[in-house]
Amino acid sequence: GKYECDYARPYDFRADKILDSLTKSLRRLKLTYLDICFLQIHDNDFEPNQSIIIYETLPALQLAQQSGKIRYIGITGYCTQKIIEVIKQSTVKIDVFMSYSRASLNDNSLGEHIPFFKARDIAVLNAAPFSQGLLTEKGPALWHPASKRVVEVTREAVKYCQEKHISIEKLALHYGLNFPGIDVCVVGAENAEQVMINLHIAWLNSALQPLEARVLGRLMRRYFDKLDNENWEGINTKAYWKRLQRLGLPTSSTNRFSSLESLSSTVTSISIASSKCY
User: Fold this and answer.
1) pLDDT score recorded for residue 261
2) Alpha helices, DSSP H only, in the chain?
3) 143 φ/ψ angles, rounded to the nearest 5 degrees
4) Domain limits for position 151
5) Apex CA 209: angle with CA 218 and CA 191, to 5°?
6) Are the beta carbons of 61 and 92 closer than 8 angstroms?
7) Which residue from 188, 47, 175, 43 is spatially nearest to 102, judged by alpha carbons?
8) Cα separation of 95 and 107, whole Å?
9) Pairing with 177, which of 70, 98, 241, 272 sits 20 to 30 Å away (CA)?
10) Contacts of 2 (CB under 8 A, 6+ apart)
11) Could you tell me the sign of the dihedral formed by the alpha carbons of 50, 55, 57, 59, in that order?
């Protein structure tokens, strides 16, 4: 849904735009279909009205599914509760949900929502077990939206692991891989070396040694439990609107979404757009 470089108006969830994007992706990948097409709405806080997603985007993906261009419809986002709201309102069956940084050492809040997805036969993917770099010796990038408190507590936990000569990455990946209720763990890597290390942990050395298990328990009790699943929901959103106000552009952004709402596509126009996928 994010296409334009215009900072004030970057999103376009209209059906024709989504289908056109899907067609271009298939062409670039030289494929006739995708196994899963994810609707990425973790930035949907920026959109005042979610009805475009409900009444245009998801139906467009359903048409693509019916035409054989995608097998499963996925949805991904950081704010789990907002994703749940979209699923509840949608008449389109969602097949897969990919969460990220919500089933990790510092935030395991995904667990309380697992029954919701299982009751609707929605597969759950757990992405970012390293919590976007937080749970690594290297530490998070400067852009990471976590609060100063979360970063400092995590840094203390990493230091404790180093003192015990235990890999924080191994503990984090083990935790993410074995999180109750998930179907798949999705792990990111910066280079081929990291890929091999992750594979080694996951396949060849997945079981924790007694010392590692004790350290993991201490990490939770001493550091992460006191965070109480503190997250960074809304931080990017607040920064976005604050910057728009400084630029004098909040009205422009609002009008963009209002105009999209007034341009709600008909079933006929969606069908025409989907025919481009053939």
Assistant:
1) 41
2) 15-29, 51-52, 58-66, 80-89, 114-119, 148-163, 168-177, 192-199, 210-219, 235-247, 250-262, 267-274
3) -80, -10
4) 77-235
5) 90
6) yes
7) 175
8) 24
9) 70
10) 10, 11, 12, 40, 43
11) positive
pLDDT of residue 51: 85
pLDDT (tens digit per residue) in 210-259: 999 999 999 999 999 999 999 888 666 566 556 556 656 555 444 444 33
CA dist., res. 253 & res. 275, Å (int):
31
Q: Is 85 a domain residue?
A: yes
Q: Are 135 and 220 in contact (CB under 8 A)?
A: no
User: What is the identity of the amino acid at 6?
Assistant: D
Q: Measuring CA to CA, which residue among 82, 80, 18, 19 is closest to residue 47?
A: 82
- Burial category of 32 from C-beta neighbours within 10 Å (exposed 0-12, middle 13-18, buried 19 and up): exposed
Q: What's the whole-model pTM score?
A: 0.81
Q: What does the block give as tokens for 159?
A: 């230091």
Q: How confident is the model at residue 186 (pLDDT cuts 50, 70, 90)?
A: very high
For residue 24, how many other CB atoms are within 10 A of its CB? 11
CATH number for the domain spanning 130: value is: 3.20.20.100
| Amino acid letter, residue 267 | V
Which stretch of DSSP H or E encloses residue 184? Answer: strand 184-186
Q: Is 268 inside any structural domain?
A: no
3-class SS of residue 76 = strand
Q: Of 61, 46, 76, whose CA–CA distance to 14 is shortest? A: 61
Domain count of the fold of the chain:
1
269 found inside a domain: no
Question: 110-146, pLDDT tens digit by residue?
Answer: 999 999 999 999 999 999 999 999 999 999 998 898 9
Beta bridge partners of 225: none
